[in-house]
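User: Structure with NAP, tokens only please.
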Amino acid sequence: MKVSIIVAAGLNNSIGKDNGLLWHLPIDMKFFKERTMGHHILTGRKNYESIPEKYRPLANRTNIVVTRDANLKIDGCLVTTSIKEGVEFARRRGEKELFIIGGGEIYRQMLAENMVTHVYLTRVHENFEADTFFPELDPKKWRTTSEIFCQKDPKDIYDCTFYELVKI
Ligand SMILES: NC(=O)c1ccc[n+]([C@@H]2O[C@H](COP(=O)([O-])OP(=O)(O)OC[C@H]3O[C@@H](n4cnc5c(N)ncnc54)[C@H](OP(=O)(O)O)[C@@H]3O)[C@@H](O)[C@H]2O)c1
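Assistant:
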């Protein structure tokens, strides 16, 4: 099973502030939706709660929410107190590609535990003030397999580059 992080980060690796996103980029939202549709997704409890209520659980995806609160129940989601158990759940269900959708704490632990095989990184070409950051990827451990630059336009107001990376 592929275990893929999907993330959008500013030039300074900023990904969030006050439990929200830092930009509105329809092109990246479309990319996220297309990639994750039909798959299992794994999210930290804070990131899950940052999703506007009308969009959660994310439709047509199996939502796995990680929390340290053993009593937490969320309608329509699998709730687990262990990241590893969440990953194993997707594997047991025969998932081919599990998406790790954040936030910062979950990205950091998944990378530190070497549980990630692929990264979809949308680099937003701007520095943002933030309180949550994506870890710096070690270039010795990750190879870029695809890189697509998208120029800003009236809808997407920042230049961005879609990278795909694979674990070496
Ligand atoms: N730019 C992007 O692509 C992107 C993507 C996703 C999120 N974000 C942003 O990231 C921010 C949220 O990230 P965050 O780092 O604050 O929070 P997070 O990673 O979404 O969630 C943290 C929570 O997950 C649970 N958790 C973490 N490690 C755990 C473990 N080992 N075992 C069990 N549960 C564990 C805990 O939940 P409990 O407190 O319930 O115990 C913890 O408080 C928001 O600003 C969001 O908008 C950005």
